[in-house]
Amino acid sequence: MKHSWMPIALLAASAVALAAVETLPVESASVTLRVTPDIYGKAIATAPTGATLTVLEKNEKFAKVASEGKEGWIRLSDLKPQKATAKAGAGPTQVAGKADDSAAGKGLGPNAEAYAKAKGGDPKKIDALIERRNKLIDTGELATFAAQGKVGRQGGK
Amino acid sequence: MIRKIITTSTIAILGGLCLGASCQKAADSLSRAGSSVGIPVNTSSGNSSDVDKGIKITKAVVETANQNWNDEDIGQSVAVSLTARPGLDADTKLNDYVTSVGLIVASVTGRSDIDFTFGILNGTEANAISAPRGYIFITRGALSKMQDESELAGVLAHEIAHVVKDHGMDALKQKRGTNLLVKIAATAADNQMFDVVSEYVGDIIDIVYNPAQENDADALAVTYLKAANYDPTGLERFVSRELASAKPDLRSHPPTATRIAKLKAAAGANPTGQKNAERFKSVVTK
Fold this sequence. Notes:
The structure holds two protein chains of two kinds.
Chain A: H1 6-19, E1 31-34, E2 43-47, E3 52-58, E4 62-67, E5 70-75, E6 93-96, H2 110-119, H3 123-138, H4 141-149
Antiparallel strand pairs in A: 1-2, 3-4, 3-6, 4-5
Chain B: H1 9-15, H2 21-31, H3 59-64, H4 71-84, H5 92-106, E1 117-121, E2 128-131, E3 135-139, H6 140-144, H7 149-164, H8 167-176, H9 180-186, H10 193-206, H11 211-227, H12 234-244, H13 248-251, H14 254-267, H15 277-283
Parallel strand pairs in B: 1-3
Antiparallel strand pairs in B: 2-3
Helix pairs in contact in B: 1-2, 4-10, 5-7, 7-11, 7-12, 9-10, 11-14, 12-14
């Protein structure tokens, strides 16, 4: 009887894939999923704290993820890597987001807040600038602004 | 002792964009420390413990901070400091406009790891300033002297370039040493942490980049303008006009003339791209 090595090879490949699955700790901030792999892309969904994101593909800086039926791009820096663990039954990599408040533009960090208390200044005013910036991006107002002025990448198209 | 109010917020623009007359004022004020020109910006010059209008740095305040500071913390501290002096312009429509133009330029830098944040400073001087990790401010005075959106994009592009190249932290390390962030943690125990940070904040606001860094930022700014489909002469036109309004000795200042020539050459012989003058004028009132 002729033995086929194919199933064994597949099992071996699956084992490797399982070993590569990451799970990440649930952190405080949410993650915004965007239409394009780009922080200036329109937001299509927000993955709340504790959500599990399934990574569909990655490039150098962004990952395409699925969350609660929606797919979109997030920055790799929005994911906090930790010790890889195998997860039975997992197809694509599953991760939970997210970690770094400062990198995600969610407002001033504790050091600047403390600095303001010590030396003066109003952190809320900077937070307001950050919120307005995020709104311009997330609502698509920035894209409209670019298109109307024929500026931006590809001349705002 | 009353803390010296910085004589030269115009120096801040040296840190970001040296704008003709502003350069001269900055240089003047450097040579006559104590006089008062430009915007009163909160810096660390003088005795910082007297600057803070009675705010006491208590151990409790120190303990709320993480002692492991990074460049983002420094940039944020600069930003929050500017809210105190000279203060931020609260015009939402104008802020949205400046932010939109800034983000469009930022989007062509390839640095999606930096969350650029833009604000407008009170003051009539034509100044701009950038802080580490993308905190960029421009004065109302600078906006009032611009003629179209490509000039605004040009000035912001120059500041963005300083951030992208990390010129601010480089200059700070050159002045304070490469272990400057370690020094902050080392002073936490005796409640001197924020005094040290305040010195760094002042350094960033007062920063004077070297000619190589300025040339670098100019060249990169023109590249960004082209990539964003803005008229690449925007920065050159604004700087040239500021130069024309400067003192005669400044007009003949070789480095500035060289700078203009380089900006023109970088823009090219037949520049194209958008100026969006009408949109600019509909938002930026003189």
